[in-house]
């Protein structure tokens, strides 16, 4: 398999690549093969080569927990970073770093993505998980998404992406590999956007320091209107944000802060933040995640759902 992949023009292959080096959590054993495809043709050829073999696709690894045992197959990454701006229309490849996209739109005086400054990862992952912050999500600005599946390349509009809070069709149809997105933004003064973004980044870095080995919030927040009436009655109005109740509210009441398993800890200042303090394992992450889900279920009758994905 290594020989087959290495023969594909442009594809960069590595054997026994430690996944901890490719995830923000800093966790994970070796992938038997890791292959980076910088162009669509290379990705298509690689997918064809591994279609009947164990394989998975990842992006920037910012929202990923990789098994301590690694992955006994091929891990593919689409690393095309191309980005172009024409007026208020932005075309960007899935392998572009999200922060690079945010900075480019701010410099061009385009409003919309500036609230996402500081969110790590790549554009493909942001589309996949409908990333967002400060009351906005990326789906608000998506006109279309290009993707690749076994039948070829397709482009679908916003509605067909079935965006919801931290969800998209691509989370359900995992055979669809995001290639690119076309976004439509609006004009705004670049200096004003930069000032707002810098303020947001300052707050984000206080909560999630750039060198912290974590995936940001570990659980999705909850939609207030979808909670049982008995639970809604317990939620103070002051904690509701844009119609959502932070999972951290329930986690804090369940005593999550400061819980430790080996090198994995729940922050003592944020109940929805797990981080690798050093020497942590994916098994320890799962142990804490399962414990927190159990506590919240027993105390409030709620089922928390992770934002992170697992390999």
Strand content: 25-35%
Structurally, the number of domains stands at 3
Radius of gyration: 20 Å
User: Under the CATH scheme, which architecture of the largest domain would be assigned?
Assistant: 2-Layer Sandwich
Helix content: 25-40%
Order of helices and strands: HEEHEEEEEHEHEEEEHEEHEEHEHEEEHE
Low-confidence region ranges: none
SSE order and pairing:
Layout: H1 2-6, E1 12-18, E2 30-37, H2 40-50, E3 55-58, E4 64-65, E5 71-78, E6 83-86, E7 89-93, H3 98-107, E8 110-111, H4 123-128, E9 132-133, E10 136-137, E11 142-149, E12 152-157, H5 169-172, E13 177-184, E14 186-187, H6 190-207, E15 214-217, E16 222-223, H7 229-232, E17 244-245, H8 247-253, E18 260-261, E19 264-266, E20 273-276, H9 282-300, E21 309-310
Parallel strand pairs: 2-5, 3-5, 4-21
Antiparallel strand pairs: 1-2, 6-7, 7-13, 8-14, 9-10, 11-12, 11-13, 15-20, 16-17, 18-19, 19-20
What does this protein look like?
- It is built from nine helices and 21 strands.
- With 311 residues, it is of the alpha+beta class.
- It has three domains: 2-78, Uridine Diphospho-n-acetylenolpyruvylglucosamine Reductase, domain 2 (2-Layer Sandwich), CATH 3.30.43.10; 83-192, 2-Layer Sandwich (Uridine Diphospho-n-acetylenolpyruvylglucosamine Reductase, domain 3), CATH 3.30.465; 209-310, Uridine Diphospho-n-acetylenolpyruvylglucosamine Reductase, domain 1 (Alpha-Beta Complex), CATH 3.90.78.
- The protein has a five-stranded antiparallel beta sheet with strand order 6-7-13-11-12.
- The model has no long low-confidence stretch (mean pLDDT 96).
